[in-house]
Predict the structure.
Amino acid sequence: MLRRALRLGGGRGLVTRGPGSRGGGSTPGKDWDGKVSEIKKKIQSILPGGAWNPLYDTSHLPPEHSDVVIVGGGVLGLSVAYWLKKLEKRRGAIRVLVVERDHTYSQASTVLSIGGIHQQFSVPENIQLSLFSASFLRNINEYLAVVDAPPLDLQFNPLGYLLLASEKGAATMESNVRVQRQEGAKVCLMSPEQLRNKFPWINTEGVALASYGMENEGWFDPWCLLQGLRRKVQSMGVLFCQGEVTRFVSSSNHMKTTSGTEVTLKRIYEVHVKMDHSLEYQPVECAIVINAAGAWSGQVAELAGIGKGPPGTLQGTRLPVEPRKRYVYLWHCPQGPGLEAPLVTDISGAYFRREGLGNNYLGGLSPPEEEEPDPGNLEVDYGFFQDKVWPPLAQRVPAFETLKVRSAWAGYNDYNTFDQNGVVGPHPLVVNMYFAAGFSGHGLQQAPGVGRAVAEMVLEGHFQTIDLSPFLFSRFYLGEKIQEQVII
């Protein structure tokens, strides 16, 4: 309000009635003092009860207008911002605002992940996304370099993923690797004997087959990627705001389908952004909203009325994404696997990788559906490691029988309860809300390709480089699950 007052009231006076302007023969200094006093009174009149404060700072407020508002400033949201600016027809054509409620990223999924990337999926679109991401990360400074800023070092460890399969899962693994190779991924199959020869520290009991990523797989520093993207998009003119989106204001248009069914199309034209630790909020007029709110993207969709219609209808189909808590444990084991160790995923689902050079390891296990921990906090359950994670790891790597846990943390997955795959593109009824969410632990590694896909859809109206049509929201209403066999 104050910015508006300065622009519509006193601001005009300051420009046209400064010292030396026309207006009789009064002393310039006194004339100026009088005009400033007048301006103060004008502002005071529209701020009843407010004292004149020339130092009132409005820099924390978002702009009143933005072409695109991105809800969520993690790697997915920043990737969308980057590609929107990268692909815009002329420099400065699109005004983009990123709203992030946690500017420290202390609870962000991005920085609490283990930073892995692999191409060992069964769905071609997932493989293509990760192949592009590998190229993006390998050439990171060609994409994210900023003039006069130091180059990014993602500390990429290209040691691959090693997936183990039992007799029961061997045929599926063979089929998956066939698809991966067809899409251009460099993956090999290994027998138990080959596994023992290459990684003598593995106990191959119960293992019938293994697949190993020989190229473009490993892990990197997620914080470095996040900060690199943030630095780059700021240099491209993207605006940032710390706050929480609390409301969408929409217009409605009632239409009938060819079958005679009445549907209501909604268009968001205003986003309310609540400031941190404040009752204050700012309305932002916009043309496009990107829902990249991670584990909270389901809640953001509800704010737009998504899923609030009659059950069984498109209007009543919600975005099935919710926060799921996942533990990551750090342990030390002096006799553990050496520097050549890949990221290993056991038959049991337990996984581990090396962390640094001092015989430290990171690992964990996704619990079964019926044992999901309470996502209301990020407290760590060390008993879960003792009972569920350690036994299969010690069985697979005998050296781990003597490991010592040093620390642990918990982070959120944006878990898609429908099929554990991402949601990309526009909502069919809230026509200017686009999704980049629900990747169930794969969002970090697929962010570069997903950001590009969403930007293409916004700017061109269709996917151009990778056709991500299977990831559209409409599949939830149609019941068309993406059958991904490799969810790590």
About this structure: Residues 99 and 241 are 5 Å apart (CA to CA). The chain has 13 helices and 17 strands.
